[in-house]
Design goal:
Pfam families: TetR_N. It comes from Streptomyces actuosus. This is TetR/AcrR family transcriptional regulator. The chain is built from 9 helices and no strands. It has one domain: Tetracycline Repressor, domain 2. The two termini are 31 Å apart. It is an all-alpha fold. 72% of the residues lie in helices and 0% in strands.
């Protein structure tokens, strides 16, 4: 999953079948395509959440969206494209949320790396709670072929970004390990939030984890 970041937009969605970048179409056609894609993604999330990725059927996704199966293939190329588009959407929203939080904190004059890191982590965790249905789907083991490798690649990039935010020297093994542990704490907490019974419980977890991050973020000595 995504993490504490300073800028959004990896461009991966634009590489998906029927990607979500600029279409070059007239405004009306582009808007219509956006409505179709939204309906397909919403229906895909429902079916994936209910049946899992493996057992989800394209016919059911198309029926729930009210969009013909042919249009589904045109926009996303199939089930894998839908899943990856949902993943990209989740990542981009989390990036946007954390980047906006960091910008606001800096505008307030906050420049302490740990304070910024924890503020970004809080924003990320709150986003994980707000988007918990999609988050639960994306952390599961039932995804398309090759998705685990993509997720590991993203996790490594997440650690590097957190290291820059915390101003940790990545050439030192101890620093890399510390940032990796912090990143793992955030990811684990995000998974727990998906199973919370209600918002008060989720807020309690977010507060607890942010306290843990403050303690663990302090450099040794």
């Amino acid at each position: 999953m995504s993490g504490v970041v300073e800028s959004a937009g990896s461009g991966a969605a634009r590489r998906l079948p029927g990607g979500q970048g600029a279409t070059g179409l007239p405004d009306g056609r582009a808007g219509q395509n956006g409505t179709v894609r939204r309906a397909l993604l919403d229906a895909a999330l429902e079916v994936f959440a209910e049946r899992g990725y493996t057992d989800a059927g394209l016919t059911e996704i198309a029926a729930r969206s009210g969009i013909p199966v042919g249009s589904l293939f045109q926009h996303y190329g199939g089930k894998r494209g839908l899943y990856l588009a949902l993943w990209e959407e989740f990542r981009e929203e989390q990036e946007r949320r954390t980047a906006a939080t960091l910008a606001a904190e800096r505008d307030r004059g906050v420049d302490d790396p740990i304070a910024l890191f924890v503020a970004g982590a809080r924003a990320y965790l709150e986003g994980a709670w707000d988007n918990r249905r999609l988050g639960r789907l994306l952390v599961g083991d039932d995804g398309p072929s090759g998705f685990d490798a993509l997720r590991r690649q993203w996790d490594r990039a997440w650690v590097r970004r957190n290291a820059r935010l915390l101003k940790v020297d990545e050439r030192r093994r101890a620093g890399r390990v510390r940032v990796s542990v912090l990143t793992t704490v955030i990811g684990g907490a995000a998974r727990e939030l998906g199973d919370c019974a209600d918002e008060p419980e989720a807020r309690e977890i977010v507060d607890e984890v942010c306290g843990i991050l403050i303690h663990l973020s302090a450099p040794p000595g």
